[in-house]
Description:
Elements: H1 2-11, H2 14-32, H3 38-49, H4 54-79, H5 90-99, H6 103-136, H7 141-158, H8 163-178, E1 180-182, E2 187-189, H9 203-221, H10 247-262, H11 267-282, H12 294-305, H13 307-310, H14 312-318, H15 324-335, H16 342-347, H17 349-380, H18 385-402, H19 408-425, H20 431-453, H21 460-463, H22 465-498
Antiparallel strand pairs: 1-2
Helix pairs in contact: 1-17, 2-4, 2-17, 3-4, 3-9, 3-15, 3-18, 4-5, 4-6, 4-15, 4-17, 5-6, 5-12, 6-10, 6-12, 6-14, 6-17, 7-8, 7-20, 7-22, 8-20, 9-18, 9-19, 10-11, 10-12, 11-12, 18-19
Amino acid sequence: MDAILAGLSQLGQWHVLIALFAGAISGVIIGAIPGLGPAVAIAVLLPATYAMDPLTALTLLLGIYSGAWYGGAIPAILINTPGTPVNVLTTYDGYPMTLAGQARRALSLAYSSSFVGGIVSVVVLIAMAQPLADIASNFGSAEFAMAALMAMVLVVVAHRGRVLAAAMTLAFGLFLASVGLETAFNTQRFTFGQVWLQGGVPLIPVVLGLFAMSQAFVLLLEDDQAGEPPRLTGRFFQGLAEAFRYPKTLFSSSGFGVFMGILPGVGEFLAQFFSYTLAQKTSKTPDLFGKGAPEGLIASEAANNAVPAAALVPLLALGIPGEALTAMMLSVFMVHNVIPGPELFATRPEFISGLYLSLLAMNVVILIFLLFATRLIVALSRVNTKFIGVVILALTLVGTYTASYNIVHPLMALVFGLIGFILKRHNIPVVPIVLGLVLGPIFEARLRQALGTAAGDMAIFVERPYSAGLLAIMAIAMIGIALANRQRRRRERTAAAGDP
């Protein structure tokens, strides 16, 4: 009870409330504009959040993170253009409902499903983060090294069909993490005599370049092909309860999203894909999927909105980010010397409670905002994408410079922006680069500590039970992806042999 009261006190501060409303509302709008997405917005705002206190900064960023998945359903349903990449499956059944004159019904289903998924995710975060942190309190350097390594392995494995590309970009991120002054022996690595590289490759220019600046180039070079949305009539309240007519789909999809969110590197798209597939297989009317099935829309939206809060479980309990957005949030923790992990629950219970309550509150704020402002959001989503690209480019350059007042950093952001643009053009994942940059130092430091303790004996990683368990999970994941690739190649050969 004391922790809850302390959390309410934290949430009741005016600057936290402003961040809560600003993040939630702007996240919805950003998600509703095709081509943006939360990664771009969080990357642009990241330098500004360093001047805020941790709870205010994280509330703002999490509001954008959560709100964007809600908002991304709007153009997916109305104009068959997903607002964010994870809303692709929403178009399968949402847009056919719009063509059938059921746009308002489809939006109401999406809103209520997203709300349930978000609340379930927060409840699981509250239930699991503390026990997992208690387990992690028994971790030593070997376990934390293996946890960081497992996160990197799962990031690569999660990119099905692009495993080699993901491994290469992860290796590039690990290389970037090794640049600079190495503290253990005070030696320089890959600095080539350049003083400005001695401090390493900073996270801000990399993030802003790979996510924000590269997307600005995409928006500036591509035509705005989105169609005109239909006119919306009626009240959105009327369809909210319909999602609960399909409780099996609603809650199983939310559970899928939670499970996938907790696993490092998996993310919203796989959660959405698996929950949609399961809903179709267990439905009494599987033939309707892709033609306007309410269950398909529910499965898609409940799953992707259950991921954000669940993704905080490994971050808060272990200090290990599982994807790019939580990696950016980890930097907010580090700037304020708030170290996520087991000790955080003991030393800052009011911060943890405040974070939980803000996550619950932002889902309520987002839902209420959507019910009253959908028509306004639809109008805002028609802003010319080239104008948005220019704004992002300007904000990126200003944000990169003001984060350090070093002219080299905007130039670095420009270089990484070009790299990110090229990678996106060739469908090569950029997320592993950021995770390699963030997880690389964690893995290296913990690996050195573990090997130092064991006098260089690698057996320490299999002799300790938690470390051995993490190694087993990695082995199972790699064997699984190898078998899946083998089956895929076999099917391709069979199909090729069957062609005349």
